[in-house]
């Protein structure tokens, strides 16, 4: 494996399992020092143990991205231990309801947009003073194919993911002046706990994902896309969303 991230420090939110964990594992395997985080201490401990067992350099910090103090602590502990931040991956998200688009109530809507959109915006804002001190730094946002073609069963979640595609475009010009690239990945249906309802049942999968490759994706396939975007192999790419979805139609 290439070592594209030697001397790089990467913070990944929601990274104790699923896509976030695979991204942390991939960046660390390529030489980065990684900070894994999520809400539950036991998951953070387990993720750190797993990465350390692979001889990877990592730190674990409990961080609920919806809590400002937790986001601040995540950034501070990273800088305290490793001395800076080169890569921030905003991956954590929630989906509080399944149903038709109007089944959601206001408190669920607020939770959804606070976690998926507002927290993404503010953790990036909190990290910018550190990212701008480094050379070739990167922000990566994890959206979803549902941000392009809304999944009817999770329509409000889809709307929150469309906002992240817009956020990527909106942040890129300003960040470019600071030497920071901002990109995004829109994964298709990836085999994790989060999307179990979508891949557990073939009929549901075919109706929802409708992808050329006729299979689910895997976290490490998103992680390799993430590694590309955060590396200098993508040095002339910013403000873009890469669809990693086995050929699922993606058009806004
Ligand atoms: P997952 O396997 O369920 O993992 C979610 C991770 O996020 C866990 O480590 C969880 O740990 C953490 N987490 C959940 N809520 C959090 C919060 N409020 N603050 C901080 N950490 C939190 O999910 P996944 O499938 O990997 O999803 C990761 C990202 O990919 C999400 O943005 C999701 O929308 C996106 N995505 C997923 C798919 C898919 O098919 N799986 C498709 C498109 C996009 P704790 O429980 O300890 O917090």
TrEMBL record:
<dbReference type="GO" id="GO:0004090">
    <property type="term" value="F:carbonyl reductase (NADPH) activity"/>
</dbReference>
<protein>
    <recommendedName>
        <fullName>Dehydrogenase/reductase SDR family member 4</fullName>
    </recommendedName>
</protein>
<dbReference type="Pfam" id="PF13561">
    <property type="entry name" value="adh_short_C2"/>
</dbReference>
<keyword id="KW-0560">Oxidoreductase</keyword>
<dbReference type="InterPro" id="IPR036291">
    <property type="entry name" value="NAD(P)-bd_dom_sf"/>
</dbReference>
<dbReference type="InterPro" id="IPR002347">
    <property type="entry name" value="SDR_fam"/>
</dbReference>
<comment type="similarity">
    <text>Belongs to the short-chain dehydrogenases/reductases (SDR) family.</text>
</comment>
<dbReference type="InterPro" id="IPR020904">
    <property type="entry name" value="Sc_DH/Rdtase_CS"/>
</dbReference>
């Amino acid at each position: 494996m290439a070592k594209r991230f030697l001397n790089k420090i990467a913070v990944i939110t929601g990274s104790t399992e699923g896509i976030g964990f695979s991204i942390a594992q991939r960046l660390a395997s390529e030489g980065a020092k990684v900070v894994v985080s999520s809400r539950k201490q036991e998951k953070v401990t387990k993720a750190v143990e797993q990465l350390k067992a692979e001889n990877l350099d990592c730190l674990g910090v409990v961080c609920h991205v919806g809590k400002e103090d937790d986001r601040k602590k995540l950034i501070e502990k990273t800088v305290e231990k490793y001395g800076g931040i080169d890569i921030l991956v905003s991956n954590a998200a929630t989906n509080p309801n399944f149903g038709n688009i109007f089944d959601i109530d206001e408190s669920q809507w607020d939770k959804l947009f606070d976690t998926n959109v507002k927290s993404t915006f503010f953790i990036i804002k909190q990290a910018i003073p550190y990212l701008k001190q480094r050379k070739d730094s990167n922000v990566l946002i994890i959206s979803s194919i549902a941000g392009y073609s809304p999944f009817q069963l999770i329509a409000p979640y889809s709307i929150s993911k469309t906002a992240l595609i817009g956020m990527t475009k909106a942040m890129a010009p300003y960040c470019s002046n600071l030497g920071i690239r901002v990109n995004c990945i829109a994964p298709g249906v990836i085999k994790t706990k989060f999307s179990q309802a979508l891949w557990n049942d073939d009929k549901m999968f075919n109706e929802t994902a409708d992808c050329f490759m006729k299979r689910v994706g895997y976290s490490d396939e998103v992680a390799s896309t993430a590694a590309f975007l955060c590396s200098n192999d993508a040095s002339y790419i910013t403000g873009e969303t890469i669809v990693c979805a086995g050929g699922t139609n993606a058009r806004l």
